[in-house]
Each structure stands twice: as C-alpha cells, then as structure tokens.
Amino acid sequence: MIVWPTSLIREVAARRCIFFLGAGVSASASDKTGNNPKAWGLFLSEASSLILNNKDKKEVNKLIKWKQYLVALQGIRDRVNPADYRDLLDKHFNNQAYQASYLHECIYLLDSRIVITTNFDRIYEKYCLKTANSDAYKIINYYSHDLVDEIRSDSRLIIKAHGSIDDISKMIFTRSEYHQAKQNHSQFYEIIKALFLTNTVLFVGCSLVDTDVLLLLEEVKITGSSERPHYAVIKKNSMSIFELRDWQKTYNICALEYAPLHDDLLTDLQRLLDQVEIERSTSGI
Fold this sequence. Notes:
Layout: H1 6-13, E1 17-21, H2 23-26, H3 40-48, H4 54-65, H5 69-79, H6 82-93, H7 102-110, E2 114-117, H8 123-131, E3 137-141, H9 147-151, E4 156-160, H10 175-184, H11 186-198, E5 200-204, H12 211-223, E6 230-235, H13 241-251, E7 253-258, H14 262-283
C-alpha cells in the first residue's frame, strides 16, 4: 500500500502537481474482448516482422531482447517499407476499439491542470474531452507555438511531448527524431524544464528510460532544491534498491511502490483521490 506523502496530497489538491503519463497508462485500456494495447517489446517484435532481410531482422530482434528499444526502432524504421511502417503505427496507436480504463478515470478525477504524456494514442484526451466540457481541455503538441500562452491560461492542458498519431510525420519515436526535435524545438524543452523546476511531477506508467526526460530531471536536480522531490509510481520489486537510490540522488525522484497487481495500483490511486478530495473540501481549493 502506498503511503501518499502529505505534501504531495496538498500539491495535487492545489493543482500544482503535474501528472506525467507513460505507456503503462495506455496499456490499461482495452477493447470489448479484453485485449490491451501491446507493450513496447511486443509492438517492436511485430514491427520487426516487417523487415524482409533475415540478417537485419535477426539483429533487430537481438536489440529488442536486450531492451535496446530506441536502437531497435531506428533499425526497423530504416529497413521497413515506409508505407507498411505508417500502417503499423496507425494500427497500434489509432485503434478506436480501445476504451479508457478506470486508471484513466482516476487520473482525470485527480484533476491536474497540466498533464504531460509521451503516449502517441489519444485514449486519455478523448476520455477527457468526452467527459468534461470540451472547451475546458486543450491538447498541445511539442511543436506548438502556443504553449507558453496556454500555460498562463485557465485551461486544462494535455501536452503531447512526443507528438500524436494524428500527425505521424511529427511523432518523436527514434533517437534521431529526439535529436531533431530538440534542435528544432528547443523552446519546448526549456518550458518543460521550467515546469519541472516550479512544480511537483508525478510519473504514472513510466519506465523513465526516456533520455530527454532524464536529462531534464538531472538539470533540474542540479539547479533546484532536493527538499521537494518528484515522484514515480512503480510496481513493487520492479527495480533494485540501487536503482531507486540512483533515481533519488541523480534525478530527485522518490519512488512510490504499489503491490504487484494492477488492481493494487487502482486501489492506491483511489485512496489518493479520496485524500485529495478531503483536502480540497477542507481548504476550499
């Protein structure tokens, strides 16, 4: 059971906590038959099957086995027919059959004013736009010139840090695309850094292997104070004690571990929601 820090409860209640959503949140969605979006390894294995050259395919599968996902994806991108590659992305990230889960609902009810996600699909934003007044939410991509103005507005923001399936040509997927985005849209990364410096961030469903995010966190750790950490919700025993200590010392991230089952995470998030609602009602937020 996660013991939610009192300071974090207050930050969430005051809407000063930014939620950062990773692939694990999208993976909780399902279609009518109970199928879920594929995890990274399975997705890449399917993508590698499109490689016609057996030697190249074998090398890419080795990279997938070693969890060198970004390098594997670059190899797939370089070796697969471009039209087949786009069709695969559309099939995986634009499947209209997937419906939001209770995890999406909990995050929505916690009502952070700013949500950042590296997910390409539109499952969470579609849920928000359908559930609330559509004017209350704005979807901002990393290449938008309106981000600063929107941050200063009253709107709830969903920031697509790697782009969206709506515009495949601007999705940040491979390592080379990361470097190109950082070169062409450096202002975006400066804004995200500023948000990390001035807000508490709660990572949900993130493996935290995104090199851009880790670099930003490291810079924030050097610039800012360690007295107010960021938080990451992770499965118990999914990381060693040495990795957790490195997270805290290098990136100022405190891990909040939930018991192994997905339902345990939902129970913990429901408890957070209950505590946040009490804080909001008693403090008049």
